[in-house]
Amino acid sequence: MYRMKALVAAALVVLGLPALAQSPQEAKPPAPGREALAIPYEKYTLPNGLEVILSVDRKLPIVAVNIWYHVGAYHEQPGRTGFAHLFEHMMFQGSKNVADDVHISLLEQIGGTDLNGTTSFDRTNYFETVPSNHLETALWLESDRMGFLLDALTLEKLDTQREVVKNERRQGVETAPYGLAREKAWQALFPLPHPYHGDVIGSMEDLNAATLDDVKDFFRKWYAPSNATLTIVGDFDVAKTKALVEKYFGTLPGSPKPALPKVTPVKLTAPVVIREEERVAQLPLLTMQWHTPAYLQEGDATADVLATALATGKASRLYRRLVLDKQLAQSVSATQQSQGGQSVFSIEVVARPGVSTDALQKEVDAVLEEVRKKGVTPEEIARARTRYDTRMLAGLQAVGGFGGKADVLQSYNHFAGEPDFIAKDLARYEKVTPESVKQFARDTLPANARVILHAVPPARRQAPTETKERH
Question: What pTM value is reported for the model?
């Protein structure tokens, strides 16, 4: 860490870089026993508002470049849904100094890997991993589309990407098994005008209604340097990299950081039951969903532990009861979908042929009631903790890509304001007890404040009941 500080100071003196708008922040020493989770980093802010996080990792001669724009579906307005996801596509379309549709091919030609962009309710990110000697190319490409995308944006390009997104929606929602049914349940969970209502992909109506001016205004507001964080992780020279960041990003004009929307959390006061005729799948589906605390808030880790105890692995409670013992279900899952504004706890069960979703609900409710009364065992909590520790450590083996070091630094910086929040995150699970799980199930997952979806194919389309012995 001292060496990094010395290199940064040398860069400022020798290269004559402008004074930083904010003093550099550095990683704190890890707690005893958490050394493997430490990610050394330095964080600073350019005068135009761009946050920069640097983390040296010399295991391989590669560098991950990862940019988060702090905008997702949560920041959209009713009637203008899907814009954040649409821009995920538009950013690969071409900019002032980069020809149409060559961004990815340029990176691939220099040996780039893990090239992608993703959108969530809370952010949109773009990332690539390149050989260390090609870091400048990656930074140039990212800066050109940050600063000069609108110079090359045309109605024709917008229409092209609009059709791509609409086709994604057709494949992922409208013609996917249970797609429309799940969307109805989600919209019941988040009624208008809540920004989660349209999910991340948005609606066909809003995508069709988007004008070129609408899209340009969205970009100017949310894709400014002041609303972005650039993270660079890997084998690089700190002083030279800071000079490159200044060269390609420091000259982009600054603007005020956009204000976050004010959104009132949703609270159900009665159960919502949806019975939907399933048009694609052949087996009935039951889902139950509850509103739960936002990501990293009190109760979020408890929900993760409970989801693991209920449906992860063959020893889990719902799997053992519904799939193995009573053979009523084809599959079960339970998840805490952690989000920045408000999270969702979901249980999903696909029935075996001939089994009704009402029969499934009776069994799921029995398991939940048992947890509300008795909680879970210390052994179940320990399994969940091990699972999360192992998953996190596995992700940290890579500098880039999904769940790699750059992504981890970005996520904690976005949600907690601390890139090195990882040890604190995992420590949340150490505080979960059988009693806290019991209280969470009782207070946050009540039977009278949830959305219940029964997606049932018509009898003529259902898979035949398994009455004959298989050969």
Answer: 0.88
